Amino acid sequence: MALIRVNPTRMELTRLKKRLVTARRGHKLLKDKRDDLMKQFLDLVRRNKELREQVEEKIMGVYEGFVVASAVMSPAMLEEALMLPKEHVQLDVDSKNMMSVNVPIFRFEASNTDDIYSYGFVNTSGELDDSVAALKEVLPLMLELAQMEKSAQLLAEEIEKTRRRVNALEYVQIPSLEETIKYISMKLDENERGNLARLMKVKDMMIAEARGGSPS
Hints:
Layout: H1 10-72, H2 75-81, E1 89-98, E2 101-110, H3 126-213
Antiparallel strand pairs: 1-2
């Protein structure tokens, strides 16, 4: 692990020890955040899977109804019946904070909830009526599914960013700080031993000199 380039002084040692404490605390917080994000993500994925299966089943029924309607009605008549929809939908997009991630919230309001058929019933088939009614029912589920899938995508991106930060702290920054602190501590201990040895040598020289200069 590469050492951090600093002067091996006690001031730098104190500063690096504080950085190490902060890095370890940040590492723990990020790991907790990653674990919570993963829990939220997996719950969202499970709900998303159930809703997707439900939506796909309903849409398949809608398609089957339209296929039957197109078989008993002429293409021109079917196109004319669906050309001018009577109902309009207003979609509002908001957001909420989920584990520091802003996920979308879709809200919609239909302009006409009583009569959704924009055509008369004389020249159309019952299968077309059923398909239009089923399509109205599946629309809220489709919006909820889109909301869930976008939320899952944003959570997955945040999980990946958090994972990279955790790995950077765990495998790069914290080991570098630990190795640098160890190096500076060894360097300071070595300097202290060297200074002590020099002081002992000076002391021995002074004692020897004092003894040599004293009268016998």
